[in-house]
Amino acid sequence: MENNFFEKVYQVARQIPHGKVTTYGAIGQYLGSPKSARMVGWAINKSAKKNVPAHRVVNKQGLLTGKYHFDGVTLMEQLLENEGVVVKNNQIQEMEIYFWDPNKELI
DNA sequence: GAATTGACGTTCT
DNA sequence: AAGAACGCCAATT
Fold it and tell me: Model pTM greater than 0.85?
């Protein structure tokens, strides 16, 4: 019932499979507003305290922009690498392979 | 109550 | 081609 922006972000973020990552723009696009990527990141900021894997959500560059928001600066990289994602210099390598699009996969 | 900021992305110059 | 500015909506201060 809560078709709020945040609720959608939570739902999508939780359904991201392991070893996969998505971008704020992808989620924003899923919400129907690709320009609202900022709100997505902001929503995830709040969801960081929930069971939402914020470390699987990065910007379109594959850069771990919000790594400083984690408990540790290396925590985000560790989590991603732990799932099999190769992170180098705060950036995801071969992100195209790890990219998970909610519109395409989740429907 | 109003102004500013914010885990981004697109578009214009 | 590269750089700068704008747009989105909500929450925080």
Answer: yes
Contact (CB, 8 A) for A57 and A70: no
Domain that holds residue A45: 5-99
Tell me whether residue A20 is in a domain. yes
CA A25 to C1' B2, in angstroms, rounded, equals: 30
User: Token pair for residue A6?
Assistant: 């945040």
For A56-74, give the secondary structure using H, E and C: HEECCCCECCCHHHCCCCC
Structural domain count of chain A: 1
Closest nucleotide to the alpha carbon of A59, via C1': B8
The tens place of each residue's pLDDT in chain A, 107 residues long, gives 556 788 899 999 999 999 999 999 999 999 888 889 999 999 999 988 889 999 999 999 999 999 999 999 999 999 999 999 999 999 999 999 999 999 998 86
Could you list the protein residues whose CB lies below 7 A from any atom in strand C? A 5, 33, 35-39, 42
CATH number, position A18 = 1.10.10.10
User: Per the domain annotation, does A24 fall within a domain?
Assistant: yes
